[in-house]
Amino acid sequence: MSEQDDDEAAPLLDAGLLKALLGEEAEPAEPEPVSPQIAKAVNAVLDALLKDEVVELDDDRRPALVAELGTVVGEARSPKDFVKRFVRTIVHSDHVEEIYGTDDQLADYVRGAMDT
Fold this sequence. Notes:
globular, 60% helix, mainly alpha, 3% strand, two-stranded antiparallel sheet, 116 residues
């Protein structure tokens, strides 16, 4: 095989991989839709957290956060697991700017929203 044949046989790079290698950010993916019932529960908790200034987030990132939380808590096996997944996800999410409450305080907000 000649050198020219080797170049022609080389696989083409994926555009996303090439952007990552060059240090360019990939375009954000559209959030996946969650069930209306889960989205309503997630939004209720977020509304309470934002109202009491327990968390801070940009309005333009809220739909992605709702999708992220909805996906994670949608897999919960029990109300206790729902709370645990919600708190863990919101604490580690890139969509949240700041968290001013403790994990226990966040869990109390989730439980309070589930009771209503």
